[in-house]
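ugh ok so i messed up the first submission bc i forgot one of the chains. this is the corrected input, ALL of the components this time, i swear. 443 residues overall. if the numbers dont match what u have on ur side tell me asap before i send this to the collaborators (the ones from the other lab, u know who)
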Amino acid sequence: MTEGGRGPTQPALAFSYEGRPHEILEEVIDICDAIEIVPDCMLDKATDHIANQHAYDVQNVIDGRAIYAHGIGLSIGTVTSWNTNYLTTIESTISKFAIRWFSEHLGFTTVDGHFLGCMPAIPRTCEFVELIADRAANLRAQFGIEFLFEHVASPVDSGGNLTHGEFFNAVADASSCGLILDLHNLECEADNGRLNLVDFFDTIDFRHVREIHLAGGIWRDGLHLDVHSNLCAPTTNSLFESVVSKCPNLELVVFELLSQAIPRVGSYAIRQQLQSIRAILDGLSGKENDERIALSAVSAGSSTPRA
Amino acid sequence: MSESHSQQSQLARQLRGLELAADRYVQYQVGYVLEWAEEQISSVCPLTSSFLTQHGLLRSRIESFLRKVNRSNRLHTFRSDFLNWLATDPDPEIAVLAMWERQIDVDRAPHESLSEDNLSTLQNALRSIGLHVVGS
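and heres the new structure output, hopefully the right one now
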């Protein structure tokens, strides 16, 4: 099924698929153990359901590989109410695909019924930890599947009295949900002066990490933005190499790339990126799990020059 | 939580043009929303957004649009809503360019034909962003 597939204890390698161009699935599927779909980009025009054509495109190539879903529009951090329409999308995703789990972001995309078109991060407070935990319990009760959460990068301080690491741990403990460690997103936070990577990795409980995201972004006006428009920078690959062996419950590693960026980056480069991640995963086999994280080199900032 | 609730409400109210929030965090988020909207509109309405950018009007038109229209979470619906709204713009060049660009959509049929006056305005608008119409 997978070309040069993974070892028995190795995390699955996946590409993030946003519904187009559908040809990319066939071009990279042989390197992947799984696909992570983004349901928000696969809806039909008139409803909140997954479009049949998108479901067909994925089912047509999946050949027994696992499918994971990564949502954007739940808006779990909107204080008054999450986006109730999005529950239909989750339900439709589950009915169309046998997904391993559904993941979402610790942010909000809707306020007072106004769709924002972007995702501000929620403040790192105990109140928000409770809010997320309550809503996560609702999601599990309603859909009967596992949910994961991902931290959102924010160039402006999202507020709160907890550190990023404390907040991450508290959300996982209180919600009993696993976490996604998005390494590019964390690099952006560090480069924008919002986070110290060494402190963060000293604080978080790696047992909560079930999934790792890798991506590349851009620099604009002195800020490092997490926009998934490029291949990974060398610093992101190094960071991945440093932390991956620390996550005993890691099941999935995803390379994320916006659908709009696929034609520019090209399938050859995407395949090379996936193969380089595979090589790192293959190299894990002989490593000791208590290897010390060497983060000092990457904590100083990204290798990408500021514009 | 009440502070967060208040900030989120202020964000929505400012986007709707109902108040100007004093909170720095809210101001930043408003800028963030507008910046993303500019990026998204530029990617799906390249002609109209180029024209608006060239005339320094993209941000203000998007801001005005978001005050009047509850934007869709579907990018292509956002596109067509924005172009439909601009098609009634008081500036004839913006209006005709938006009318023309909204027709460049495979799902729209039949296409409307432009009057001679509008065609001439369109040619001027396209010329101003470096595009020259050839043929009839």
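quick check: The helical segments of chain B are 2-15, 24-44, 46-54, 58-68, 75-86, 92-102, 116-128. that seems consistent at least. The interface with chain A takes residues 1, 4-5, 8-9, 11-13, 15-16, 25, 28-29, 32-33, 35-37, 40, 43, 70-74, 76-78 of chain B (CB under 8 Å).
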